[in-house]
Amino acid sequence: MFTEAQNFSIVQTELDAVFSQKFDFDDRFPGVAHATTAEIFKPQETTHAAWIQSINKGSGLFPSIGEATTVPLSTPRVTNKQTTLINTYAQGISISKQLFDDNMHGVWAADVADFARQAKNTQDSVAFGLFRLGFTTALTADGVSIFNDAHPLIGGGTQDNRLTAALTPTSLNDAIVLLGEQKNQAGVISGGAPSVLLVPLALWKKAREITDSALIADSGNNNINVYRSALGITVWTSHWLGTAAGGSDTAWFLLAQNHGFTRLIRQGVETALTDWRYSSNLTYFYQANYRENYFCADYGGSIGSLGTA
To answer: Residue 87: beta bridge partners?
Structure first.
């Protein structure tokens, strides 16, 4: 015979098992990215309710000096302060004692599974909002959109990380060149090699053909596909990038390993269960919450194309 405490513990365990199964494992096709995909959103843990960062200009190139000449002085400069507040996300569902005890047709398990999936969907929707809004209202610390024709550099001048061309082998090469010749805040070329090609579902087939075909895509020639043999670009897609999610079916993004997209984690997902004994209508109250946010403080290592030209 179970005690009340043991019964309650069993219910919590069963609910958490279903929640974890749907939250931690994905049943969609391979290549779908999530907020937890570290290649796209670099995880950064914090113990505070806000994260404050500033952008460093750094030093320039080393000049050549003569013998016994005073070493030139380069003064680093820090500016463009940006504050990211931690958001709390929470939701709860009520499960009647009778429904849980009887579990007719697995209804309560289905409810909890959907509950967990919505937690995952919420994470993804918020995270990929940086890309959906990256040409408009999602800003870097310099005060302009993440993907912009003229990011103001701390050392003077501007840097472009925005294209308009549709995704093709040629436009991908243009993005690779722009990424490789990208200047840092001091105006020095320090771009990186392409690592991630991020596209909406509508462009997933096209992106895989361009990067994975043994021979060059969209051509009758037998040229070797350098995107596959030399660069090893990883193609990721998301349901939360396209028109259906408020984004674009034509926009695409190229990221280097030094990109600035960050997932700021204050607290991972936690669940809690209130026993039916503490309710007035014989119901369990199952809830989940987590605390995090996302930001991109600097344009470096990223290229975005509207895909409209």
So the answer is: 292
Distance (Å, whole) CA 158 – CA 166: 24
Residue ranges per domain, the chain? 4-48+84-305
Beta bridge partners of 158: 152
Q: How far apart are CA 196 and CA 28, in angstroms?
A: 20
Instruction: State the Cα–Cα distance between residues 244 and 190, nearest whole angstrom.
Output: 36
Burial (Cβ within 10 Å: 0-12, 13-18, ≥19) of residue 278 = exposed
pLDDT in tens, 105-147: 688 888 999 999 999 999 999 999 999 999 999 999 999 999 9
290 in Cβ contact with 104 (< 8 Å): no
For the chain, helix, strand, coil in percent to 5 are 30, 30, 40
Short-list 291, 304, 226, CA closest to 259: 304
Average pLDDT over residues 159-176: 96
Give the mean model confidence (pLDDT) for residues 188-205: 93
Neighbours of 308 (CB within 10 A): 11
Q: What is the pLDDT of residue 241?
A: 98
Cα–chain center distance at 93: 28
What is the end-to-end Cα distance of the chain in Å, rounded?
A: 71
248-292 pLDDT per residue, tens: 999 999 999 999 999 999 999 999 999 999 999 999 999 999 999
Nearest-angstrom CA–CA distance, 83 and 93: 33
Residue 205 has pLDDT above 60, yes or no: yes
Q: Please name the fold of domain 4-48+84-305.
A: phage-related protein like fold (3.90.1690)
What is the pLDDT, as a whole number, of residue 1?
39
Whole-prediction pTM value? 0.90
